[in-house]
Inverse folding.
């Protein structure tokens, strides 16, 4: 029951994260020093925080060792990408982050 | 437009000044002039990522700042007998680092609004997300816009600085998260070796600093090994102590401290004179 709820919550925050990054990239980027847009970026950060949190909780509650490991890897991904990301290749790293989140949603829907 | 300055009267003593994150040597001009009037040569240059094109700050790392400070120090070391270092905010951290790197050569440190932690009262409600944002791709999305009080309690001065910032003449009008990320890395780099500081040190910090609380000054004060150290807590200023209500007091304290150290170093019983 709790695991099911977490799965839905994980998928919801993942989709919200992807959508908000796309909105930011397409609509807001050129005007990003405005105080409202920085609050919007705080929302993106919040979604990413929940993404990591839910991935860890799913890993803890999942009965299967393989799923535990894979969900923990997904939880670590934002930090690994953040570690290597550079300003020059920021778009590529952002895209990688989004693709990994999509893969994590697909994985979750399958298990 | 370069805001760098070098006040020289061929003195044998010099003060190397560093400005803060997103700032420029402009913020040090009056302070530099006060030191110059007391017989010190004074040097202040824009830190990497700051000068003419502020966009460079996005690609600048804390190692660039460190190497810049080492380079400037080495240049002065060839020409001067006594070198003192001072800085504001990020510049204070760089000044402290020079005292770690060159323990025998740095004769004294004046550290203003030392920024080792970003925990001031002005930070936005979502500051709890900062560690996550800094360690993920989000740090490239985020710029925190400069907003009131701009680190200044004095309303008249604040209005003037606000206009200058809007024009982009004296600094960047917002804090890029990438710059904050590098400042935090620099802070960690310096914090671990604070005990190696033996040079006489004066710390000036406001109780109501909007960007960094007095925790930073307290940490430095408690960890450094300097026999001569003093911590002054201001209560009528914010972060920009060189512009604010107590700027005269700050100039006096800093110039008196450095002058006293310089006089003491010339006497045979050097070290016996306490410069508080």
């Amino acid at each position: 029951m709790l695991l099911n709820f977490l799965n839905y919550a994980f998928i919801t925050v993942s989709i919200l994260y992807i959508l908000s990054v796309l909105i930011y990239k397409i609509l807001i980027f050129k005007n990003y020093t405005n105080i409202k847009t920085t609050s919007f970026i705080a929302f993106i950060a919040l979604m990413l925080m929940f993404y990591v949190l839910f991935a860890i909780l799913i890993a803890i509650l999942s009965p299967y060792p393989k799923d535990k490991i894979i969900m923990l890897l997904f939880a670590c991904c934002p930090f690994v990408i953040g570690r290597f990301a550079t300003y020059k290749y920021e778009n590529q790293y952002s895209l990688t982050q989004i693709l990994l989140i999509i893969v994590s949603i697909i994985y979750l829907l399958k298990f | 437009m370069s805001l760098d300055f070098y006040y020289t009267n061929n003195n044998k003593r010099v003060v190397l000044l560093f400005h803060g994150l997103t700032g420029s040597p402009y913020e040090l001009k009056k302070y530099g002039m006060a030191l110059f009037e007391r017989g010190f040569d004074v040097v202040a240059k824009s830190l990497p990522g700051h000068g003419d094109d502020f966009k460079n700050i996005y690609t600048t790392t804390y190692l660039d700042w460190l190497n810049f400070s080492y380079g400037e120090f080495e240049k002065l070391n060839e020409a001067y007998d006594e070198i003192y270092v001072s800085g504001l905010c990020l510049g204070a951290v760089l000044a402290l680092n020079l005292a770690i790197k060159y323990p025998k050569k740095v004769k004294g440190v004046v550290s203003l609004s030392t920024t080792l932690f970003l925990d001031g009262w002005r930070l936005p409600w979502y500051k709890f997300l900062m560690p996550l944002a800094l360690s993920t791709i989000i740090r490239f999305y985020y710029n925190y816009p400069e907003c009131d009080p701009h680190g200044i309690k004095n309303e008249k001065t604040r209005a003037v600085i606000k206009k200058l910032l809007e024009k982009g003449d004296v600094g960047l009008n917002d804090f890029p998260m990438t710059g904050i990320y590098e400042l935090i890395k620099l802070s960690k780099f310096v914090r671990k070796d604070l005990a190696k500081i033996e040079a006489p040190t004066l710390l000036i910090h406001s109780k109501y600093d909007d960007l960094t609380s007095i925790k930073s000054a307290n940490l430095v004060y408690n960890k450094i090994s300097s026999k001569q150290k003093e911590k002054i807590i201001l209560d009528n200023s914010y972060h920009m102590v060189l512009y604010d209500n107590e700027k005269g007091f700050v100039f006096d304290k800093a110039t008196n401290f450095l002058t006293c150290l310089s006089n003491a170093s010339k006497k045979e019983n050097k070290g016996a004179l306490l410069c508080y």
Remarks:
- Chain B has one domain: 5-266.
